[in-house]
Amino acid sequence: ARNLPREDGAFGFTSATAEDIDVFRSIVGEEGLVTDAEDLVPYNTDWMKKWSGSSRVVVLPKTTVQVSRVLAHCHARAIAVVPQGGNTGLVGGSIPTRDEVILSTSRLNEIVAFDAAGGVLTCGAGCVLEALDAYLTPRGHCVPLDLGAKGTCQIGGNVSTNAGGVRVMRYGALRASVLGLEVVLADGTVLDLLRTNRKDNTGYDLKQLFIGAEGTLGVVTKVAIATPPRPTAVSVAILKCPNFDVVLQLFALAKTALGEILSAVELMDSLAVETAMARCPGLKRPMELEDGAFAVLLETSGSCEEHDKAKMGALLDRAFAAEIVDDGVIAQDMSQAADLWAIREHVPVAAATGGYQYKYDVSVPIPRFYELVRAVRRRFQELSLAEDRAAAFGYGHLGDGNLHLNVVCARKDDEVLRALEPFVFDWVVAAGGSISAEHGVGQHKRAFLGLQKGPEALALMAAIKRAFDPRGILNPGKVLPDDPVSQ
Ligand code: FAD
Ligand code: S2G
Ligand code: ZN
Question: Where is the FAD-binding PCMH-type domain (predicted)?
Answer without folding.
Answer: 51-230
